Amino acid sequence: MNILFFLIPVMLIIVVIAVYFFFWAVKSEQFEDLDRQGANILFDDEEDLTDSEAKSKE
Asked: How far is CA 22 from CA 8, 17, 25, 31, 52, in A?
């Protein structure tokens, strides 16, 4: 029974932190363009290639 006096406040603190980070993510527009981020992995960025990789593609 005594453990409940410890676990309930700890659980409430964790829930408050999770809700804070959720609202922070929504406010900073983390969920605005989910389709573009999913498609980014399918395409190579030419400017990110190193010199040796760029030469091997030619």
From this structure: 21, 9, 5, 10, 42
- Secondary structure class of 50 (helix, strand, coil): coil
Q: Give residue-wise pLDDT tens across range 2-57.
A: 999 999 999 999 999 999 999 998 898 877 776 776 777 777 766 655 655 555 65
28, two tokens: 């900073």
| Euclidean distance between CA atoms 49 and 58, whole angstroms | 12
| pTM for this model (two decimals) | 0.54
Our separate counts of H helices and E strands in the chain read 3, 0
